[in-house]
Amino acid sequence: MQHYQIEPIGYIQSPYKQKFAIPRQPRLIPEAKAKLIFNPNFNREEFVRGLDEFSHVWLLFRFHETADKGWSALVRPPRLGGNEKKGVFATRATFRPNAIGMSAVKLDGINYKNGQLSLELSGIDLLDGTPIIDIKPYLPYSDSLPDALGGFADDRPETELTVEFTPQTIAFCQAQSAFPELQGFISSVLKQDPRPAYKKTKEGIQQYGMTLHCFNIKWQIEGNCNIVLEITKQSAR
Fold it and tell me: Would you place residue 236 in the very low, low, confident or very high pLDDT band (cuts 50, 70, 90)?
């Protein structure tokens, strides 16, 4: 049996600092912007010559935070409420052989500044620091299959959750000139209902916290409404 070594070509700088709250598929949250920073061996403009002709790219990456936890032949997809097992190859679960994932994301731009090559991306669903092992252009004539069947995940995930902000959190978002889409970004993340599947059937008020960009966000769920209670900025390290 042959074994292969793979050298990451770069890594992702993402607003998602923890696995909690990351959308389960790409492009569900267009406001989620990120950068792909190229590693030294691939930090040359020749590698991306012509890539700006494409609107979207495929990213092949490694689930680096769960790779050392092993894999399983059967997993519990969140779309099925975590109550039914499916074969790992019938899902996009993270606990898989070789721990390789893929995402089709929007390419917003290519930068080469101060000797560093990077891609500007949006609709990202990757954890900050995710190693990228390959990039391929998205080809609409080949990659888009309108008649394909999506099995148990055939429809875009939707929830009935609404989002409300307190006056204080609205004022905080409006004061963040470096993050003009912060309120919309938080709202889009919460509408995706990032709670674990087993929590979604719990009654009563539930409180949660998450980190997006450099902000700590606290909110609670009352019925079908997310109420953003507090947003604070992390102190610079």
Answer: low
- Say what the pTM is: 0.89
Environment class of residue 186 by beta-carbon count within 10 Å: exposed (0-12), middle (13-18) or buried (19+)?
buried
| Cβ-based neighbours of 139, under 8 Å, separated by 6 or more | none
Give residue 187's pLDDT: 95
- The answer to whether 137 and 58 have CB atoms below 8 angstroms apart is yes
- 190 — phi, psi (to 5°)? -70, -30
Q: What is the pLDDT of residue 237?
A: 60
Between vectors from CA 166 to CA 15 and to CA 232, what angle results, nearest 5°?
40
Q: How far apart are the first and last CA of the chain?
A: 46
The sheet carrying 206-212 orders its strands as 162-165, 225-233, 215-222, 206-212
